[in-house]
Amino acid sequence: MTASLAVFFALAALAVIGAVSLIVQKHPIHSALSLIVVMIALAGLYLLLGAEFVAAVQIIVYGGAIMVLFVFVIMLLNAGVEEHTSISKMAGAPGLLLVVALAGFVAATIARSTESVETTLQTGEIASTLGISNMIFKDFVYPFELTSFLILVAVLGATVLAQREKS
Amino acid sequence: MVPTNYYVILSAILFGLGVLAFIFKRNIITIFMSIELMLNAVNLAFVAFSQALGKLDGQVFVLFVIVVAAAEAAVGLGIIILIARSRQTLNVERVDLLKL
Is A113 touching B (CB cutoff 8 A)? Predict the structure, then answer.
């Protein structure tokens, strides 16, 4: 087993354990911390894939900004342990069946379709960050500008939603 | 070098766990977090295929997905604050009326 494969399995195990922990934990703050573990593990996988810019953005935006927002809201609303009613326990079995069917479908599709991809695997030697900046500011410049508009609208919407109504 | 298959399978596993969390959890904030988990799983597949095909389009799409996820988190958490303020609960089963 090569070193990169060992690192991959370690990070993959960390990500899966974090995702399972997100489901198992009862308190939302523990779920949020588990999700941060998943995101850090995924950033490590991006580094392993040679996508260092995406890895940095993953840690700064996801691990930093978005999850801090989540933890902040959980603490602001003083969210407690989640409660399950009898109906939600009954819905667990069909839900599990649905997930198994979905996972089987995805696995079958992957097994059939990625054989051709595997043969074209390249080493991580593309100038990643330079190439990404070239693509964003040349090929994808209009979508990029649109995303800034989207962020502006989202910030306005969040402000309007969260402000207290004047009585 | 790790085969692309492994990355895509890991991505599928994480996506499945995200769907599982979406179905099983009852706290609205945790349900929102499981959506983020699914987005992350898709991002991993994007980066893996971008690396496998030697093109950078996938990584640019990941950046756009992250931007949209940030916007979604801002608006979604605003809605969650609004729900918690008007219903005094975060359990989705008690949020079953459009109008109070």
Answer: no
- Class of A1-81 per CATH? mainly alpha
Q: Can you list the residues of chain A whose pLDDT is less than 70?
A: 1, 85-86, 88, 114-127, 166-167
B7 at A interface, C-beta within 8 A: yes
Residue ranges of domains in chain A: 1-81, 127-167
**What is the per-residue pLDDT across B18-73, written as a single tens digit (0 to 9) for each?**
988 888 888 889 999 999 999 999 999 999 988 888 888 889 999 999 999 999 99
Q: Can you tell me whether residue A158 is helix, strand or coil?
A: helix
CB pairs under 8 A between A and B: 228
DSSP B4-19: HHHHHHHHHHHHHHHH
Rounded to the nearest angstrom, the minimum Cα separation between B100 and chain A is 16
A99-113 per-residue burial string, b: 16 or more CB within 10 A, e: under 16: beeebeebeeebeee
The CATH code belonging to domain B4-94 is: 1.10.287.3510
The per-residue pLDDT for range B44-54, each reduced to its tens digit, is: 999 998 888 88
Q: What is the pLDDT, as a whole number, of residue A115?
A: 63
* Residue position matching structure tokens 């609208």: A153
